[in-house]
Design a protein that fits this description.
Distance between the termini: 67 Å
Helix content: over 70%
Number of domains: 2
Oligomer: single chain
Largest sheet: none
Strand content: under 5%
Number of strands: 0
Radius of gyration: 38 Å
Structural class: mainly alpha
Length: about 200
């Protein structure tokens, strides 16, 4: 339990003034803490002994100073309450930001699923296996690295060397990829007519 909870409801200026007078009256610097707490809480019916004890323990250093005043104690308490309010406000703001980020992430996931479904609705079913095929994964399998989750720099160099130079996204590249897709479709249609299993993509 934090100090704010132990102090109870916010102490008013009049309560602090009355507490400070009782503290001085009972010679708290020499008397035992339990006796002072019992005496002060008896004359402050709106405060429990635990609240009085928390206030004393929280500001024991200040209360022991000869130049301590009730105004100074109230100013310190006010700073404590203000800092607590600022911390709670910041914590609430951070929680709200986390909720916004979580909601945004959830929307992005839904959007990605919708986009995939949207793309699939505009592609022929015959092309599903073609677009699901990954030449990169085939390369990893051939190198006995299909199970890798991470690769070292030397392994990445070997993978890049095995796959050759990357192609530039150009009209020629698109033309070749489209021709590859058309060849795949022709083979699949032939296989369907012959009622045989679809071929692997090459």
């Amino acid at each position: 339990m934090g100090w704010s909870e132990r102090l109870g409801p916010r102490w008013t200026e009049s309560e602090v003034t009355e507490f400070f007078a009782l503290w001085r009256q009972h010679d708290a610097t020499t008397a035992s803490l339990d006796r002072v707490v019992a005496a002060v809480s008896t004359e402050l019916p709106q405060r429990t002994p635990d609240m009085v004890r928390a206030l004393i323990q929280m500001h024991k250093g200040f209360l022991s100073l000869p130049m301590a005043t009730d105004e100074g104690l109230y100013a310190i308490l006010t700073d404590h309450y203000d800092a607590q309010a600022a911390w709670e406000s910041e914590a609430a703001e951070q929680q709200q930001q986390q909720q916004v980020v979580a909601a945004s992430s959830s929307r992005r996931k839904v959007s990605r699923r919708n986009n995939v479904q949207y793309v699939r609705s505009f592609s022929a079913a015959i092309d599903d296996e073609f677009f699901a095929h990954s030449e990169f994964h085939d390369c990893l399998v051939q190198m006995n690295m299909g199970h890798f989750q991470r690769a070292k720099r030397t392994e990445w160099s070997a993978i890049r060397g095995s796959m050759g130079h990357p192609r530039r996204f150009s009209a020629t590249f698109l033309k070749e990829e489209r021709q590859k897709l058309l060849r795949y479709r022709n083979v699949v249609r032939y296989a369907q007519r012959m009622n045989v299993r679809r071929p692997c993509i090459t």
